[in-house]
Every structure is written in structure tokens, then in C-alpha cells.
């Protein structure tokens, strides 16, 4: 069984209470449940982690190097656009990594259109609402399979 870390940054704990026209009505628990249900049939386990604090997210990514984590899905929230520390922590990981966003960040305000973490992940899924999480799970499962085939 592979372990997938599902990492959420600031304000994502408020899903369901935030602007529904942008973020939908699903709660963070709904999102983690959806990702878990997408991963389980293929024998994968999802660990949902959320923090409002950049340092907590960086620390959790450092732990992922040695704790048996096999892949990372990250929605860094507003840190997507500003956190070089988070990007550096992701870059250290030699694991499949997928960035996911509920909204299409490329069609939003100018400051949201740049992701400093996109260059250090395998791919980005944006604009599909909560369904993007199922797509991200599928993507990391595919990446894990490709690694296993090469090994």
C-alpha cells in the first residue's frame, strides 16, 4: 500500500465557508474523503494534513522524506504564489508530486497566476473544483506505477 500525503495550506480549512462561486461548497473533510475514496480501490492510503502556517507545511514535507510517504498532492493556497520555502521543501523530495487547485488560478487575479511551486512538481491540476483531487490522485498513482515499472 502506498501512502499519499494530501497537504493543504492557509485558509483551506475554511472550505465550505469561503466564496462558493470560486471554491464551491465542499468542506476540507469532503475533499479528503473524495481523495481517499479515489485512492482506496488501487490500494493507496491518503493522509490529509492542513496548516495555516508555512513552517508546519515545510516541516511535514521534510518528514515525508523518511516516514514512508510515497507521493504528495499539494494545494498550498495563497502560499502557492509566494512561498519559496515551500517550493524548496518540495524540490528536496524525490517523490511524485502534484499541485492541485480548486479554481483555475490562471484565470484569476494577476497575482494568483504565478505558482512558485509549479516548477518543482510533476504537474498541476487547476479549475476542476473538488474533482481535481480525484484527478490528482489518479496522476500520482500513474506516476508511482511508472516509477515501479522503471525499477
Nutshell version of this structure?
The chain has 151 residues and is an alpha/beta fold. It has helices at 20-23, 28-39, 54-64, 84-92, 131-150, and strands spanning 2-8, 44-50, 71-75, 97-101, 123-126.
Characterization of the model:
It is built from five helices and five strands. The chain is an alpha/beta fold. The protein has a five-stranded parallel sheet, with helices on one face. α2 runs parallel beside α5 and α3 packs parallel to α4. The chain starts with a strand and ends with a helix.
List the helices and strands and how they pair.
Layout: E1 2-8, H1 20-23, H2 28-39, E2 44-50, H3 54-64, E3 71-75, H4 84-92, E4 97-101, E5 123-126, H5 131-150
Helix pairs in contact: 2-5, 3-4
Describe the structure using short key phrases.
alpha/beta; 37% helix; five-stranded parallel sheet; 5 helices; 151 residues
